[in-house]
UniProtKB/TrEMBL annotation:
The chain crosses the membrane at residues 6-22, 29-60, 72-91, 98-115, 121-140, 152-176, 196-218, 230-249, 261-286, 293-317, 329-350, 371-389, 418-442, 462-484, 524-543, 640-660. This is Proton-conducting transporter membrane subunit. Signal peptide: none annotated. Keywords: Cell membrane, Membrane, Oxidoreductase, Transmembrane, Transmembrane helix. Pfam families: Proton_antipo_M. The keyword Chloroplast does not apply.
Length: 661
C-alpha cells in the first residue's frame, strides 16, 4: 500500500509538471489516473480490514511520515471517486484548462498531505496547498466577472483559518516541549487547563470551519464556487471538504482528550455553530438562481450537519457514553460519504448544461427530455440523496443524525438534553428547507418544458458520469449494512466501543439497538419499486383517456406557457418573504416608456438577498482596512525629510528601550 501511495504522488507531480508545460491532455489523464488509484487503494484497504498504513518520506533532509487511518481512507474513497470523473471530463473553460489542471494537481497533493500528515509542519504546508490549488482552479477558469474578487475573498477567509490553525499547533507544540508531532499533542493537552482547551477547540473550529463553510465563513462559498465550473465544485465539495472535516474530527476528538465541564461547553458550542450554520446556509441555498451557487451553499449545509453530529459526539463523550459518542462520530462520516458522491453528480450535471447553453442558470429548458434516461436516473438519485428522500444515502445518514440527537434522554444533566433537543429542532428545519431546495433544483432546472426551437443537445458523456455517481449513491445506501463495518476498528481505537458494528443488525440499520428505531435501505430498494407499480397501473388504466391540454392562466391574457412557467425566483418567493428578517430582500424595477406613458418599452427587474455577516462583519472590516491603508499611504510620500525624521524617531525609541532595560 505504501508503494501505491508513492505511485499516486508521482502521478500527481507529473500531472502538475505537464500542466505547467501546457500538455493538457497528458496532465488530464495523469491526474485522473492518480485520483482513480487513490480511490481504488482506499477501497481496497477498507475491504482488507486494515487499520491503515504508513509512508516514510524525506523533505529537505527532514524525515516525514504519512499514515492513513481507516477514517481517512473512508473519506478519501468517497472524495476521490467523483474527483476522478471531474478531472477526466476536465473544465468546460477551454482557455484555462492548463491552469485548472495545475490547480487540481496542487489541491489533490495537499489533500493527500492533510489526510496522512503526522506532524504540524507537513500538515500546515498541505493545508495551504489545498487553498492555493483551489484558488488556481477558480482563477484559471474565470467563469464569472467577479472571479478575482471572489477568489481573493475566499483566500482572505481561508488565511484567517490558517492563522488560527497555526496558533493552535504552536500552543500544543509548546505544551509538548517543542515536539510538533500529532502523537505528542494528546499527552500535551492533558496537562492544560479547561479554559485553554476550550480556546484550542475554538481555534480548531475556526481554522477548519473556514473550508467547511461554518458561519461566518460560508459567505465566500457562493461567489467563489460560481466563479468556477462544476468540475471545480465537485473537487472542492468532495476531496477538499472531506479532508477539512477529517482534520477537524481528529483535532477535536483525538488532540483534546479527557473530560469535564470544558468538554461539555466545547461540545455545546460546536453543536450550536453546526446547527446555525446549517440553517443559514440552506436558507440562502434556496434563493440561488445559479447551479453552482446553490450547490455550494448546500455543501456548507451538509458539512454543518456533520459538524453538529461531531458536537453531539463531544457531549456524549463528556457524559461517559462511549457507545453513543462512537455512534455520533460514525454518523458524521457516513453523512459526508453520501454527500460527496451526490454533490459531485449534480456539479457534473451543471457542467453538462453549461456545455449546451453556455450558462449555469436554473431555468426550465427540458433537459431530461433531451438528455435521455441516463441523466434523469443519475440526477434523480443525487437530488433525492441531498434532499434526504429514501432510500438514498442522504436519507440514511440524516435519519441516523436525528436518531443520534434523540439519544439525549440517556444523559444525566438537563443542559445536555436541552442542547440536543434544540439541535434536533434546528436539523428538522434544515431538512425541510433542503427538501424544497432540491425540489426547486430538479423541478425547475431539469423537469421544466423545453422552449420552442431549442434543440441544443446535452453531452452524453456527462449524462453517463452523472448516472455512475447517482447509482453509486444508491448502491452505497443499499449495501451500508456491509460497508459500515469498515469503520468499527477506528471506533474502538478512539472511543473503546464498537459503534459501527452495533449500527447494523443483518440487513437492518439501528442506532445501536433495534428496540429504539430501525430502518433498512436494502429492503427499501426492493419495496419502493414494487409500491411504484400502483401509480403505474393507474396511469396505464387511464392511458386511453386523452388528456386535455390548455394554456396557463396568465391574468386573463393568452400568454406563452414558457414565459408563464415557474421560475427559480418565483418558487422561492414565499419562503423569502416568510424569512425576510434573515434575507432582508432588496428589489428594484426600472421601467422605460416611450412617448406615451401607457406603453412600456423595457422593464429591468433586479432582486437580491443580503448576506448577514457581510453587512455586520465583513463590510466594517473592509472599511477599516481601507482607512488604515489610506493612513499608511502617507509613508510613501517620497519626502526625504519625512523618511529621515521617521528613522530618527525609530533610533531614539530603540535607544530609550535599551537604556530603560
Amino acid at each position: 500500500m505504501a508503494e501505491g501511495f508513492l505511485v499516486i504522488f508521482v502521478l500527481f507531480v507529473l500531472g502538475l509538471l505537464a500542466a505547467l508545460y501546457k500538455r493538457t491532455a497528458a496532465a488530464r489523464w495523469l491526474i485522473a489516473t492518480g485520483a482513480a488509484l487513490a480511490a481504488i487503494q482506499a477501497a481496497w484497504a477498507l475491504h482488507a480490514g486494515t487499520q491503515g498504513f504508513g509512508v516514510a518520506l524525506a523533505l529537505a533532509g527532514q524525515p516525514m511520515r504519512f499514515a492513513y487511518s481507516t477514517d481517512a481512507l473512508w473519506l478519501m474513497f468517497f472524495g476521490f471517486a467523483p474527483a476522478t470523473l471531474a478531472v477526466a471530463l476536465c473544465t468546460p473553460a477551454r482557455q484555462g484548462s492548463a491552469g485548472w489542471l495545475f490547480g487540481v494537481a496542487v489541491s489533490l497533493l495537499g489533500a493527500l498531505g492533510v489526510y496522512g500528515a503526522q506532524d504540524a509542519y507537513a500538515f500546515l504546508i498541505a493545508w495551504e496547498l489545498m487553498s492555493l490549488g483551489g484558488a488556481a482552479m477558480l482563477l484559471s477558469e474565470s467563469l464569472s466577472a467577479q472571479s478575482g474578487q471572489a477568489s481573493l475573498f475566499m483566500l482572505a477567509l481561508l488565511e484567517v483559518g490558517a492563522v488560527a490553525l497555526l496558533l493552535a499547533c504552536l500552543i500544543l507544540g509548546h505544551a509538548a516541549h517543542g515536539a510538533m508531532g500529532f502523537a505528542q499533542f494528546p499527552q500535551a493537552a492533558r496537562g492544560m487547563s479547561g479554559g485553554l482547551k476550550i480556546f484550542l477547540g475554538l481555534l480548531l473550529l475556526a481554522g477548519f470551519g473556514a473550508k467547511l463553510g461554518l458561519l461566518p465563513f460560508y459567505e465566500w462559498f457562493a461567489g467563489a464556487y460560481a466563479s468556477g465550473s462544476g468540475a471545480s465544485g465537485a473537487i472542492l465539495s468532495g476531496v477538499i471538504l472531506n479532508a477539512a472535516f477529517f482534520a477537524l474530527a481528529r483535532g477535536l476528538v483525538q488532540w483534546l482528550p479527557g473530560g469535564g465541564l470544558w468538554l461539555l461547553i466545547l461540545g455545546a458550542v460546536v453543536t450550536a455553530i453546526g446547527v446555525l450554520s446549517a440553517i443559514f446556509t440552506v436558507l440562502h441555498a434556496l434563493q440561488q438562481n445559479d447551479w453552482r451557487a446553490l450547490l455550494s451553499l448546500s455543501t456548507a449545509e451538509n458539512a454543518s450537519v456533520a459538524v453538529t453530529a461531531l458536537g453531539a459526539c463531544l457531549i456524549f463523550r463528556e457524559n461517559g457514553h462511549a457507545d453513543l459518542a462512537a455512534l455520533a462520530w460514525t454518523v458524521a462520516f457516513l453523512h459526508l460519504a453520501g454527500h460527496a458522491l451526490a454533490k459531485g453528480g449534480l456539479f457534473l450535471c451543471a457542467d453538462g448544461i453549461y456545455r449546451s447553453v453556455g450558462r449555469y442558470t436554473i431555468e426550465q429548458r427540458g433537459w431530461l427530455r433531451r438528455a435521455g434516461p441516463a441523466l434523469g436516473v443519475g440526477a434523480l438519485c443525487c437530488a433525492m440523496s441531498l434532499a434526504a428522500i429514501p432510500p438514498q444515502m442522504g436519507f440514511v445518514s440524516e435519519w441516523f443524525t436525528f436518531q443520534t440527537v434523540f439519544q439525549g434522554f440517556h444523559l444525566d444533566d438537563l443542559g445536555s438534553k436541552l442542547i440536543l433537543a434544540l439541535a434536533g429542532a434546528g436539523l428538522a428545519l434544515t431538512a425541510a428547507v433542503a427538501l424544497a431546495t432540491f425540489i426547486k433544483l430538479f423541478g425547475v432546472g431539469l423537469l421544466g418544458a423545453r422552449p420552442a426551437g431549442d434543440r441544443q443537445p446535452f453531452p452524453k458523456r456527462y449524462g453517463w458520469c452523472v448516472l455512475a455517481l447517482g447509482l453509486g449513491v444508491l448502491v452505497c445506501a443499499a449495501g451500508l449494512p456491509v460497508w459500515i463495518k469498515a469503520l468499527d476498528d477506528i471506533d474502538f481505537a478512539i472511543f473503546g466501543a464498537h459503534g459501527a458494528a452495533a449500527m447494523a443488525d443483518n440487513w437492518i440499520l439501528v442506532p445501536l439497538t433495534n428496540t429504539f428505531a430501525f430502518i433498512s435501505p436494502s429492503k427499501l430498494v426492493i419495496a419502493m419499486p414494487l409500491l411504484a407499480t400502483i401509480p403505474l397501473l393507474l396511469l396505464w388504466a387511464g392511458w386511453r383517456r386523452r388528456p386535455r391540454r390548455a394554456r396557463v392562466w396568465y391574468g386573463g391574457m393568452i400568454e406563452d406557457p414558457q414565459r408563464a412557467a415557474t421560475s427559480s425566483l418565483s418558487f422561492a418567493n414565499a419562503l423569502r418573504n416568510y424569512y425576510r428578517f434573515i434575507y432582508r430582500p432588496v428589489q428594484s424595477a426600472v421601467r422605460t416608456h416611450g412617448a406615451n406613458v401607457y406603453f412600456l418599452q423595457s422593464l429591468d427587474f433586479r432582486h437580491d438577498v443580503a448576506n448577514m455577516f457581510e453587512t455586520i462583519l465583513f463590510d466594517p472590516l473592509r472599511e477599516f482596512v481601507w482607512r488604515l491603508a489610506g493612513g499608511l499611504r502617507r509613508l510613501q510620500s517620497g519626502d526625504l525629510n519625512f523618511y529621515l525624521s521617521f528613522i530618527g524617531l525609530l533610533l531614539a525609541a530603540i535607544l530609550f528601550l535599551t537604556l530603560w532595560q
